Recover the amino acids of this structure.
């Protein structure tokens, strides 16, 4: 299905792009001046904030695409279907990947606003006759923000791209339809919303996830025969921030196997800390995709005391960064 979607997009956008070049879009305003291409322009950070890492990152996130999409730069470019606004697909992907890594580490509002502005501009350019820019944002957005194997995997940053696809006037309905499944996945258990409840069974019996009392609840969805899960488990067991927050009683960890009880699940119990809740799904609802869509194994969620989602489907490094930030509000156990 994914290959068919990409093929449909490629055929559609190449056709429209060809029309764009033949018509000489904005040819009356274009200046055929020499211009250095295949280099993504760097953000020029004001000297007054250059020594502050946080302010520099936030400024760069807000202005990452400004020079690349500036009127002066665009007017100097000659029509060329082999590049995306003067840079190769490879350089564009590297630049987009760097952008994603940057906005992953700034304030959530700044990150989402930055992505929304980028998509708005790309949608407008597509409607004005140049769809290739949005096409490559779609392809790289799916790869770096939605794909299960991405180290980032951030639904909140991918949703602006999906919203742009839905409201685009140039993307065919059959292509939009193929992305609506992703919209449904991203819409489940969004950050800031209450996580869907589910039943789990541990050595103490069967309970509901919402009944767990804790300021923070770390849910570690894992499979007993998953090598990545075992690797993540070893890191989590040695993590100072997890040890401290669990030790202080600030956080509980629910390690649940969506696949249900098995002989291997029982054998693995000794691998998990005794102060974690070691459990399995007794009814098989977690693997049905109706309340949770677990794209990766392991899959990590962090909830607050009201069971509102703080992080969803996060990578372990991202999870530990968030927990470290939270733990700064508490006195560390010595």
């Amino acid at each position: 299905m994914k290959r068919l979607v990409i093929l449909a997009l490629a055929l559609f956008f190449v056709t429209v792009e060809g029309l764009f070049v033949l018509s000489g879009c904005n040819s009356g305003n274009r200046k055929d001046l020499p211009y250095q291409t295949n280099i993504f322009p760097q953000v020029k950070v004001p000297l007054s904030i250059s020594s502050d890492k946080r302010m520099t990152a936030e400024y760069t996130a807000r202005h990452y695409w400004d020079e690349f999409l500036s009127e002066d730069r665009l007017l100097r470019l000659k029509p060329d279907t082999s590049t995306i606004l003067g840079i190769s697909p490879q350089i564009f992907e590297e630049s987009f990947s760097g952008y994603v890594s940057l906005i992953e580490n700034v304030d959530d509002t700044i990150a989402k606003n930055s992505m929304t502005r980028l998509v708005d501009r790309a949608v407008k350019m597509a409607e004005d006759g140049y769809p290739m820019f949005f096409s490559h944002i779609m392809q790289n957005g799916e790869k770096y923000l939605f794909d299960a194997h991405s180290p980032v995997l951030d639904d909140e940053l991918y949703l602006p791209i999906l919203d742009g696809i839905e409201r685009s006037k140039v993307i065919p309905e059959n292509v939009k339809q193929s992305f609506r499944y992703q919209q449904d996945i991203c819409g489940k258990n969004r950050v800031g919303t209450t996580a869907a409840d589910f039943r789990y069974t541990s050595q103490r019996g069967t309970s509901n996830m919402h009944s767990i009392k804790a300021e923070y609840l770390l849910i570690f969805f894992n499979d007993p025969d998953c090598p990545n899960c075992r690797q993540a488990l070893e890191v989590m067991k040695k993590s100072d921030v997890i040890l401290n927050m669990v030790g202080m009683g600030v956080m509980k960890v629910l390690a649940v196997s969506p696949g249900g009880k098995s002989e291997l699940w029982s054998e693995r119990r000794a691998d998990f800390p005794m102060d974690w809740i070691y459990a399995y799904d007794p009814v098989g609802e977690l693997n049905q995709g109706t309340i949770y869509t677990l794209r990766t194994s392991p899959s990590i969620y962090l909830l607050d005391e009201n069971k509102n989602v703080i992080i969803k489907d996060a990578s372990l490094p991202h999870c530990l960064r968030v927990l470290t930030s939270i733990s700064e509000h508490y006195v560390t156990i010595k």
Notes: Strands lie at 199-202, 205-208, 216-221, 251-257, 277-280, 299-304, 309-314. The first helix runs from residue 2 to 23. The chain has two domains: 2-187, 199-327.
